[in-house]
Write a structure and sequence with these properties.
By secondary structure, the protein is an all-alpha fold. 50% of the residues lie in helices and 0% in strands.
């Protein structure tokens, strides 16, 4: 089990050095109407947070609905998440052109 903790009022370990945001700020960003902002923080969480911490911020439905806009660090990471979502009953929609989907954000 990890020694990393999610602490209110502090920048989480999975946020890169160039971002200045607290846990509360991430919750606010994820709840905002700004798609770019939501996808940015979803991408940080899904690429860099430990698995058990992801669910403190996101639901399976969040990942499913935004799957093709998320900035996956590698194709392998994207494929892992696609398989996991499908296995859990939340398969992302088919996307003929994932690069085009990313342009929407």
């Amino acid at each position: 089990m990890s020694e990393r903790k999610i602490v209110p009022g502090v920048k989480p370990y999975f946020i890169w050095w160039d971002q200045d945001i607290t846990v509360e700020g991430i919750y606010k960003a994820l709840g905002s109407d700004n798609l770019y902002r939501r996808i940015t923080y979803m991408s940080y969480i899904l690429n860099d947070a430990e698995f058990e911490d992801i669910w403190k911020f996101l639901t399976l439905k969040d990942v499913q609905e935004n799957f093709w806009q998320i900035r996956w660090r590698t194709d392998a990471t994207r494929d892992y998440w696609r398989q996991l979502l499908t296995f859990l009953g939340y398969p992302p929609n088919d996307c003929s052109d994932p690069r085009a989907a990313r342009l929407l954000v």
